[in-house]
Amino acid sequence: MTDPASPREDKVPRTARGERTLRALLSAAAEEFGEKGFHDGSISGITRRAGCALGSFYTYFDSKDDIFRALVNDMSGQVRDYVSPRIAQAGNGIEAERIGLLSFLEFARAHKEIYRIIDEAEFVDQAAYRAHYENTATRMAARLKKAAQQGDVRADVEEVHAWAIMGMNVFLGLRYGVWDDSRPAQEIADIANALIEKGIGKPA
Amino acid sequence: MTDPASPREDKVPRTARGERTLRALLSAAAEEFGEKGFHDGSISGITRRAGCALGSFYTYFDSKDDIFRALVNDMSGQVRDYVSPRIAQAGNGIEAERIGLLSFLEFARAHKEIYRIIDEAEFVDQAAYRAHYENTATRMAARLKKAAQQGDVRADVEEVHAWAIMGMNVFLGLRYGVWDDSRPAQEIADIANALIEKGIGKPA
Question: What is the pLDDT of residue B8?
Fold first, then answer.
């Protein structure tokens, strides 16, 4: 499977400098679309924020749609790359979900534009929108099944549990990450994790 | 508190016929925005679908933004009016949440445009978007607290549980209601409800 976050082969940066330019364009796009939304955001706004020429933009992207799709896939990958190594430190399958939510809350608080960007993909690039949630749910379902094999989680855990827990995390992140971050992230993660532990944890 | 779903006082229909026209315009708006989205949807598209004159539109709405806001509030109210009386039949607080999800899945399957419309409010009318979820969570938190008083649910149930369960329902509705409705709604509701029952039900 090709990674949809990567630019096409002829547009992959060949140098460290090219890599930095591509990264600057994606960060600028996150700001531009995060503030203005897709419709009002513009390529010139992105290059201005990135401090680079229009030609550099077209070295890596074909259009506004193209960089938006790349941005959604990039943010989806950023969440995964922030959360996954933290989850890997967990002592058991239930603790893994607590750390998963806690680190997602941290990420959402530090990148409040993420909801606006990924949610707008529902209208701008439905495939990227579905891919983000389907990939997240697939990773979570695999994690839960592994936890079931290790005896941390009930044996009948399945895809529905993954979508349920992902939905929980998304709305807790919106409410207690983006809209109002006054309660400690740890507290929110503990309350939700107690629900999950009792809900799908293996009875002692 | 005024109901934001209602038109302003000077725009309230005074006759049954007026009421029917308003209803026809809102249904047409659901089709128009559900198919085309807010940006590509148009007032003329709405009046054409509703089979009414442009003048009738302006009898009830000031602008495309105005009918979009009314539509979001109307759909939010429609979900509530479909789900609430069904929940009221439940024998206990856990059963209430099972019926809540089951009837929400039924509603989403029958009105697949609901996600597209309410989610687009995040970009078109942030206040209507937040109001939809805040009102839903407030109703759910009140229901859970009442269930705690009746001894069906743990005494420490709070707002975080309501947002968690609402998020679960929203994502299960998207995945198993709108994107793919091949699994029985009953089955999805049973799996999620077992998680909730163990997660927040009062230990026997």
Answer: 60
- Looking at chain B from residue 182 to 201, which residues have their Cβ under 8 Å from any Cβ of chain A? 188, 191-192, 194-196, 198-200
The two structure tokens encoding residue B143: 């229901």
Nearest to A191 among B122, B133, B160 (CB): B160
> What CATH topology corresponds to B9-62?
Arc Repressor Mutant, subunit A (1.10.10)
Residues 6+ apart with CB under 8 A from B29: B41, B46, B67, B68, B70, B71
H or E element at residue B50 = helix B43-50
Mutate to test the interface with A, among B94, B119, B198 (most CBs of A within 10 A): B198
| HEC assignment per residue over A105-117 | HHHHHHCCHHHHH
Which tens digits make up the pLDDT trace of B114-138?
A: 999 999 999 999 999 999 999 999 9
Report CA-CA distances (Å) from A7 to A75, B103, B114, B129.
Answer: 14, 43, 33, 34
Q: Which of residues 158-177 of B touch A (CB under 8 A)?
A: 158, 160-161, 163-172, 174-176
> pLDDT class for A10, splitting at 50, 70, 90?
low
CATH topology of domain B71-200: Tetracycline Repressor; domain 2 (1.10.357)
* Domain at A65-200: CATH architecture: Orthogonal Bundle (1.10)
| Sign (positive or negative) of CA dihedral B176, B37, B126, B138 | negative
Residue B61 CA from chain centroid, whole number: 21
B148 three-state secondary structure = helix
Look up tokens 């442009």; give the residue: B54
Span B51-96, pLDDT tens digits: 999 999 999 999 999 999 999 999 999 999 999 999 999 999 999 9
Chain A nearest CA to B93, separation (Å): 16
> What SS3 state is found at B201?
strand
Domain boundaries, chain B: 9-62, 71-200
Residues 6+ apart with CB under 8 A from A74: A5, A26
